[in-house]
Design goal:
- The complex is a heterodimer of chains A (116) and B (114).
- With 116 residues, chain A is mainly β.
- Helix content of chain A is 0%, strand content 47%.
- The mean pLDDT of chain A is 92.
- Chain B is mostly beta strands and 114 residues long.
- Chain B contains no helices and 11 strands.
- In chain B, strand 7 and strand 8 (71-76) form a beta hairpin.
- In chain B, 38% of the residues are buried.
- The chains are: A mainly beta (116), B mainly beta (114).
- The A-B interface holds A 4, 31, 40-45, 48, 50, 55-56, 59, 91, 93, 95, 97, 99-110, 112 and B 1, 3-4, 31, 33, 35, 40-45, 48, 88, 90, 92, 98-102, 104-107.
């Protein structure tokens, strides 16, 4: 079974520029998550989708971050404009439960973003 | 956001030794997950615990869901060099409505020497 795919793996941009990350979850997984992991810390949830709807975006900085999952499969996360403190690894994860009944989340390799 | 406290923060052990680490929270959780993260990779799920008091094994790994629902423990027996990495606990809270929002711990960095 193919895992969660993410691209790009690495991205370097200047502050105030825009950037987008892409995620393709495990086939059949209804729930998709985006996490931000700052160096030395555990992942922090940014947004959770169930199919193509947003379930939780309470920790997403909505003035600069946006995410979509239009067809309930793959997803994009965008930052516009980027700040220095956005430098982090952005992880995508998916889980099978359509109704939240499976809590086992499987992670992609992440995109390492460096903002200069 | 809240993070769970893990201890120790880091540890150096010799190959063949057993390892113990724990995760504590001020809040109750009804699911605990343990992940391992290698450099440059995403976290990989090791063990999932769904019931207070539950003890679950996966090869040389054993994890327990604390009776109070506020802690969990992970043990690794007979460590080998490939056990090197960062181990994260993650808890799923009660009454989260959407059910599957995880809170991650601060991580335990494990180094294994020959």
């Amino acid at each position: 079974e193919a895992g969660v795919a993410q691209s790009p793996r690495y991205k370097i941009i200047e502050k105030r520029q825009s950037v987008a990350f892409w995620c393709n979850p495990i086939s059949g997984h209804a729930t998709l998550y985006w996490y931000q992991q700052i160096l030395g810390q555990g992942p922090k949830l940014l947004i959770q989708f169930q199919n193509n709807g947003v379930v939780d975006d309470s920790q997403l900085p909505k003035d600069r971050f946006s995410a979509e999952r239009l067809k309930g499969v793959d997803s994009t996360l965008k930052i516009q404009p980027a700040k220095l403190e956005d430098s982090a690894v952005y992880l995508c994860a998916s889980s099978p439960g359509a109704s939240g009944d499976s809590y086992e989340q499987y992670f992609g390799p992440g995109t390492r973003l460096t903002v200069t | 956001g809240q993070q769970l406290n893990q201890s120790p923060q880091s540890m150096f052990i010799q190959e063949g030794e057993d390892v113990s680490m724990n995760c504590t929270s001020s809040s109750i959780f009804n699911t605990w997950l343990w992940y391992k993260q290698d450099p440059g990779e995403g976290p990989v799920l090791l063990i999932a615990l769904y019931k207070a008091g539950e003890l679950t094994s996966n090869g040389r790994l054993t994890a327990q869901f604390g009776i109070t629902r506020k802690d969990s423990f992970l043990n690794i027996s007979a460590s080998i060099p490939s056990d090197v990495g960062i181990y994260f606990c993650a808890g799923l809270g009660i009454n989260t409505g959407t059910a599957s929002k995880l809170t991650f711990g601060t991580g335990t960095r494990l180094q294994v020497t020959l």
